[in-house]
């Protein structure tokens, strides 16, 4: 167990000073103060964050956050990155090479402190714990604002939805788009964030047209199991709250484990066989290098299991392989949609 971050006086002074700085060369600003400063306030996962100027030394706690920042052209505002699951996408490679890699794994409080950040961002709330970088409350007490993807905070971000005619809950993609917009405001890159949202909405719309074609074919929606990883002999599949469920709905399929209100629950091979899915999406995390991560490892485990091997989907090789990183909420998630629709066409589920 590691203790929470305890920033030194020099680091804390730098962080507090940098949060209040205004950088030349940034994009459009949110609010201009009389003295020329830029004042912005956003709410991230229930916590209000205020900035007098764009952050200068941001630390990203995972690959998803890193690639969002790079997509927004913010490599020069990054003090470091960490927790790389797979290779950085080719379009971000040049920008990524300008950023210090603080750790290839999950960052510790000591590593975060040494980077003297003025802002930190993570895709999931569980990075901000006492045995990792410290809780968000502890970091805030030290003058370090923290941002968590809205996708990991649906209850806070869907306040008012639910019982009796409240607002409709936002989809995971809408929450991702909210991240882009909020980060655009924080860093003064609103135009670039708006273009990213527009482009990704177009990809979503194209995938939704596939769903319309699937409906035209008649019959029930095909069922799918999303297999993310296998540890030992334990499969991890997408549950209802994981973004693959939304991707399934978008293209006119149904996640076979939508009845489990978790992101990536562990199940048994027998449970998968009982659902008897029409096809399986296999996540490839081969670059992470752990046993059971590659698509080849997963397929080997499926075919070696006496129950799974008898499924019609397995016998007829109804598999679609997708990079595992695209099965997590990130700027690359929409890239999974054309792969998914293309695979469904090959399998005959849409024309």
UniProtKB/TrEMBL annotation:
InterPro entries: ABC_Transporter_SBP, ABC_transptr_periplasmic_BD. The keyword Nucleotide-binding does not apply. Gene3D superfamilies: Nitrogenase molybdenum iron protein domain. PROSITE patterns: FE_B12_PBP (PS50983), PROKAR_LIPOPROTEIN (PS51257). Pfam families: Peripla_BP_2. Residues 57-351 form the Fe/B12 periplasmic-binding domain. Residues 1-20 form the signal peptide. Keywords: Signal. SUPFAM superfamilies: Helical backbone' metal receptor (SSF53807). Belongs to the bacterial solute-binding protein 8 family. This is Iron ABC transporter substrate-binding protein. It comes from Streptomyces silvensis.
